[in-house]
Write a structure and sequence with these properties.
Pfam families: CtpB_N-like, PDZ_6, Peptidase_S41. The protein is α+β, with helices and mostly antiparallel strands and 437 residues long. Among the domains are: 85 residues, PDZ domain (Pdz3 Domain), CATH 2.30.42; 163 residues, 2-enoyl-CoA Hydratase, Chain A, domain 1, CATH 3.90.226. 27% of the residues lie in helices and 24% in strands. Strand 19 and strand 20 form a beta hairpin. Helix 8 packs parallel to helix 9 and helix 9 packs parallel to helix 10. The longest helix is centred in the last third of the chain and has 18 residues. The two termini are 37 Å apart.
Length: 437
């Protein structure tokens, strides 16, 4: 995509992190504010004196010895954590884990988290990980980790406790929808996340599932579209893009994915205090999807980069957005490397959909609301048909008899147990019927 090669280094440094620090873009320093701006407001000397006095009192009177380094690092963490839920100070270990996660492989539970009312909240479990297999749901509150309360812990502290050696066990105490706390025991694993999966779910109808927006996700979606086209042997009749429980990721990948479905127009733009944090991303004329009818699935676990894609396709009326309201994270984080292998993950801008919508704390509202539900299928009654009756008349047009018989076993399909997905497929089929008419 030619326009992506012209992005500034800042664009490559921006990541949209849906709650948890698991993805980031290539690090590149952001230009600091001009010196004149820094001199505009003098340093608050009274507060600095208070800070120094507090440090001295803690060192002198705290029940256990504490070093200047510990106090200063805690002060920096507090400085970042009180800005917003997504800004954070990354020590060398946390920074290294953030870098590793871009490749789609990291150790832990496979759970994306944010904060709410001082508790750690599940944004979404990642597919095929210990968290998803244990039945953890988006919106669950993690109130304890191995019996220790999480109230007041920073997101980074909680993430560090949940990470660990593969094979080791951990107990999370969860609260779901205001109910009673319950424990879930999980076994940590090496999390290898394939960000894109695809398959034909019905003749002529394709399905692409994006679990995260990693560095190569845009390229992988392009490959998935080609694969589905080849499997179908011709242009698809319809396509479902599943962004449910996708916590976000790299901004550039979100732009690339949206660009696969658009021929022209704005995809997303960002606004921040610094001039080079104001970026605009537009589609190129190529349309890898060939204009196929599209349904985009979202839910409360769809955050950040997922909302960029859904919002762009919705604003351009390129597809029908179905499901439930998305998470509502409309801020942009930039990873700023510091000395000694440390970094800041700092909120530097807000993003806006092509029509100028900010979804911060609001989310994307689907065009067609479909709540999650459980599908139970009833088998047909084994009743007789006309063709089973002795001496029945034949079909006057020469058609073969169709007596009752046991239905042959059919292979399981994703839509068989997924109500939202089945509704998306039905909508696509209905669109094709009306267009044919």
């Amino acid at each position: 995509m030619p326009h992506l090669s012209r992005l500034t280094s800042l664009a490559l440094a921006i990541a949209l992190l849906g709650g948890a620090p698991v993805l980031h873009a290539d690090q590149a320093p952001i230009t600091p504010p001009p010196a004149a701006d820094q001199k505009a407001a003098p340093l608050p000397l009274d507060e600095l004196r208070t800070f120094a006095e507090v440090m001295d009192r803690i060192k002198a009177a705290y029940v256990e010895p504490v070093t200047d380094k510990e106090l200063l690092e805690n002060a920096i963490k507090g400085m970042l954590s009180n800005l917003d839920p997504h800004s954070a100070y990354l020590d060398p270990k946390a920074f290294a884990e953030l870098q590793e996660s871009t490749s789609g492989e990291f150790g832990g539970l496979g759970i994306e988290v944010g904060t709410e009312d001082g508790f750690i909240k599940v944004v979404s479990p990642i597919d095929d990980t210990p968290a998803s297999k244990a039945g953890i749901h988006p919106g669950d509150l993690i109130v304890k980790i191995d019996g220790k309360p999480t109230k007041g812990q920073s997101m980074m502290e909680a993430v560090e406790k949940m990470r660990g050696k593969a094979g080791s066990k951990i107990v999370l105490t969860l609260v779901r929808e205001g109910g009673k706390p319950f424990d879930v025991e999980l076994t940590r694993a090496v999390i290898k996340v394939a960000s894109v999966r695809s398959q034909m779910i019905d003749p002529g109808y394709g399905y692409i599932r994006v679990t995260q927006f990693q560095v190569n996700t845009g390229e992988e979606v392009g490959k998935a579209l080609n694969k589905l086209r080849k499997e179908n042997g011709k242009k698809l009749s319809g396509l479902i893009l599943d962004l449910r429980n996708n916590p976000g990721g790299v901004l550039q990948s979100a732009v690339e994915v949206a660009d696969h479905f658009l021929k022209k127009g704005l995809i997303v733009y960002t606004k921040g205090r610094l001039p080079n944090s104001e970026l605009r991303f537009s589609a190129d004329p190529l349309d890898a999807s060939e204009g196929v009818p599209l349904v985009v699935l979202i839910n409360g676990g769809s955050a950040s980069a997922s909302e960029i894609v859904a919002g762009a396709l919705q604003d351009h009326k390129r597809g029908i957005v179905m499901g439930t309201d998305s998470f509502g994270k409309g801020s942009v984080q930039t990873v700023l490397p510091l000395n000694n292998d440390r970094a800041l993950k700092l909120t530097t801008a807000l993003y806006f959909t092509p029509n100028g919508r900010s979804i911060q704390a609001q989310g994307i509202v689907p065009d067609v609301e479909v709540a999650r539900a459980k599908l139970t299928r009833e088998s047909d009654d084994p009743s007789l048909k006309e063709a089973d009756l002795q001496g029945h008349l034949g079909n006057g047009n020469g058609g073969a008899d169709r007596p009752s018989q046991a239905a042959p076993g059919k292979p399981a399909r994703p839509q068989d147990d997924d109500y939202q997905l089945s509704q998306a497929l039905n909508l696509l089929k209905g669109l094709n019927v009306t267009r044919a008419d």
